[in-house]
Specification:
60% helix, mainly alpha
């Protein structure tokens, strides 16, 4: 976990504290555990900067890379983004940013309308016309 100089911790949405504790408990294997710890690291980094007046949309990309200390996969990133969208106090704002930041065409806008999270690990192969 990234903790150096951090003052704030990820704030779980009201009423979801027990569900989040269960989520962490069932994801203790190497892969799932890293998804959870990456998500927490990412959220913690953003919490610090949001508390200092910065906007999530301006810091989400940079902090996502800062939290990635071991080259997580694209699927791990998407799982963490989805988890944060659901559990984190700023999750809806992150979900909307994530979808627009990672869209090809208009699927991010469509995902925002539906309330879903894009999976960045999906490979789209197309042809030029």
């Amino acid at each position: 976990m990234i903790s150096k100089g951090r003052k704030y911790e990820m704030k779980i949405k009201d009423g979801l504290e027990q569900e989040y504790a269960k989520h962490k408990n069932i994801n203790q294997d190497t892969y799932g555990g890293r998804v959870v710890s990456y998500g927490e690291d990412w959220a913690n980094l953003m919490e610090d900067r949001i508390a200092n007046g910065e906007q999530l949309e301006d810091i989400a990309d940079e902090t996502s890379h800062e939290a990635d200390t071991d080259d997580i996969t694209g699927f791990m990133y998407s799982c963490a983004a989805s988890s944060l969208a659901y559990y984190w106090e700023h999750g809806e704002q992150l979900r909307r940013w994530h979808n627009l930041e990672n869209q090809i065409g208009t699927e991010g806008e469509e995902a925002n309308e539906k309330g879903t999270v894009l999976n960045t690990a999906i490979l789209n192969i197309g042809t030029k016309e």
